[in-house]
Amino acid sequence: xxxxxxxxxxxGTNLQAxxxxxxxxxxxxxxxxxxxxxxEGVYALERARNNGIKTRTVVRREYSDVVSYSQAILDAxxxxxxxxxxxxxxxxILDELVVRAFPNKMMNVHPALIPxxxxxxxxxxxxxxxxxxKGVKVTxxxxxxxxxxxxxxxxxxxxxxxxxxxxxxxxxxxxxxxQAEWKILPQAAALFCDDKLEVRNGRVYIKN
Length: 208
Ligand code: GAR
What we know:
This protein is about 35% helix and about 25% strand. By secondary structure, it is an alpha/beta fold. Strands 3-2-1-4-5-6-7 form a 7-stranded mixed sheet, with helices on both faces. Strands 8-9 form a two-stranded antiparallel sheet. Glycinamide ribonucleotide binds near residues 10, 110, 111, 127 and 177.
């Protein structure tokens, strides 16, 4: 059984999708053993507690720089003996010292079809604001492995979602979550836990 540690910073709807997937048996070879938040008091922590999952808070603003914060996160992940680390709305960029310790063992959900609307500065509602500004007709979500390049790691799963003419960033965000993120993040976690993901030359292959 693989130990899954989920990193959060906010409401935790993607965390909820993972919890539900574990309960329903979609994720059968993995268990969420700890949720780590970069902020105190976020609803994601309550979701974890409501489901009997251990929580830890490593507050970003208590550390003076990215490297010392990253080391604290790495220490927590090592203590938790994480086999898979999932960024589920985790809004803090970590130093590559964390990525190096978990090569192809960290995944992130991003609310757009990478390589569109991604990279530094593209997070949360901002992604949907930019998609609407550009006037794209289709957007979606991506789950990818985390590398030292922000939103640049090997793509595991993507799902497209149509943009509607009267969309606001909020309505688009909600549809992308419901139709894409909450589906492909648990699917990707399940594939990882079933040892079905193989990374070759920067591409992900899904084994039968
Ligand atoms: C989600 O839409 C997630 O894709 C996005 O933040 C939201 C978190 O919601 N993540 C990023 O933008 C990362 N670049 P949640 O806390 O309800 O899961």
